[in-house]
Write a structure and sequence with these properties.
Number of helices: 12
Strand content: 25-35%
Radius of gyration: 22 Å
Number of strands: 21
Distance between the termini: 31 Å
Helix content: 25-40%
Largest sheet: 11 strands, mixed
Shape: globular
Structural class: alpha+beta
Length: 420
């Protein structure tokens, strides 16, 4: 049974001091996972300055580097983290960070940076937990991410967790604090972000403050509408799954119950926030022709004659065309992913190569035009249906949606120590 208390809390937060934050803050590592040019541009921009780039492993390298190369890269991240702990990070005990982010597309997205208890999170569909995964977790993707976390002394959060508060009870307390210039909101950073990321500002809230007590009570009192959970992971599903897997191994090995790795730093966002956009994640299929893919759709449609037909767009070369797909389930993405999975199985293709998940219409067009394959454009998902879908169906298909375009994702800035 779900506890009356939400599994979130203030925690010790590390914030850099004395560095150029525009070079320090780097986009979430799971973005541009097929575009090495982006990450090379980031390296050029950062130069030799202190940066979270030195403390992460962009996922673009996870599938193209050898085990030895990745091991060397991971080892370097640990050295950089330890150096940052000594000379860059300033520790703020018992803290929550209120964050405002502006981009070219939105004027303001609001969030709270908090600690969550991984014991109250699950990526297994319908398993009792107050924090649920929104999408199917690909178990094969966890080990590489867990290997990075296992070597880390510091976590840099890019996980975004959603909550459903349509009456804005939670952030109404922030509104009042801002209107009255309440000193319980302590400014801690304000910086532009590289590569089109906009601007981010942060204020510390003490875990001993009246403001946090009010926020916490509002989060505890969120109406679940009988769903059995308050929170859904919007972005970073696999990273959080890797964090839980790592913690469970430490726990089995005898780690104490309050070990820092039991908890994770996440960004908490209200699902109806006007600054939050939910974008589809498109499919880039390689190793097959457009004719092969159309034949696969035809076979799927023939096997579901009673289902309604939904139109989706394909791009091959520089040509965009339409195709119909039978939709026996709630979402068209379920049908499209089933078609792709069946085609991969029949052709005995490597799934990590044959199906890539792409953010943004123009990025999909560019990749197809430059590298071949066939792109499938997927429609947006209604955010208001997300919580009910997870409650009723367990999880959405993997990589169903994205919280904004790539540049709107979380940039690494704050940290938290995860070793004793």
């Amino acid at each position: 049974m779900m506890s009356s208390k939400a599994p979130i809390a203030p925690t010790d937060v590390l914030i850099p001091r004395g560095v150029d934050l525009s070079r320090w803050c780097v986009l979430a590592s799971d973005q541009y996972s097929s575009v090495r040019d982006y990450w090379q541009s980031v390296e050029e921009y950062v130069g030799g300055q202190p940066s979270t780039l030195q403390m992460i492993v962009p996922e673009v390298y996870l599938t193209v580097e050898s085990a030895d190369e990745l091991a060397t890269r991971v080892s370097r991240t640990r050295v950089a983290m330890d150096q940052a702990l000594e000379s860059v990070f300033q520790r703020y005990d018992n803290s929550v960070i209120y964050v405002e982010r502006a981009t070219e597309r939105v004027k303001r997205r609001r969030s709270l940076l908090v600690g969550i208890d991984l014991e109250d999170y699950s990526f297994t569909p319908h398993e009792p937990a107050d924090i649920r995964a929104s999408e199917e977790t690909v178990l094969e993707r966890i080990p590489a991410r867990e290997a990075v976390r296992a070597q880390a002394s510091v976590e840099l959060p890019h996980v975004q967790v959603l909550f459903d508060d349509p009456l804005n009870r939670v952030f109404s307390f922030i509104d009042v604090a801002q209107e009255t210039h309440d000193e319980q909101l302590q400014p801690v950073y304000d910086t532009p972000l590289m590569m089109g990321g906009g601007v981010v500002r942060g204020w510390r809230i003490s875990g001993d403050s009246v403001l946090w007590r009010n926020l916490n009570n509002a989060l505890n009192d969120l109406d679940t509408h009988g769903r059995g959970f308050r929170f859904v992971v919007g972005d970073g599903n696999h990273s959080l799954a890797a964090a839980r897997s790592h913690w469970l191994k430490l726990k089995k090995a005898g780690a104490r119950e309050d070990h820092p790795a039991r908890f994770a730093l996440v960004e908490l966002i209200e699902v109806h926030d006007s600054g939050l956009t939910m974008e589809p994640i498109h499919r880039w299929v390689r190793g097959v022709s457009e004719e092969d893919l159309r034949d696969a759709f035809d076979r799927w449609n023939a096997s579901h004659p009673q289902a309604k037909l939904q139109s989706v767009s394909l791009v091959c070369g520089d040509t965009v065309s339409e195709i119909s797909v039978a939709q026996p389930q709630a979402l068209v993405i379920e049908s499209v992913q089933n078609v792709i999975d069946e085609l991969i199985a029949v052709r005995n293709l490597d799934p990590s190569y044959a199906c890539e998940y792409i953010h943004g219409d123009e990025e999909l067009k560019r990749l197809v035009a430059e590298q071949g394959g066939v792109g499938i454009f997927l429609p947006s998902i209604d955010r208001s249906a997300l919580f009910d879908y997870v409650a009723n169906r367990g999880v959405m298909p993997r990589k169903s949606f994205s919280l904004g375009e790539a540049e709107e994702k979380r940039y690494y800035l704050e940290g938290r120590r995860i070793i004793e």
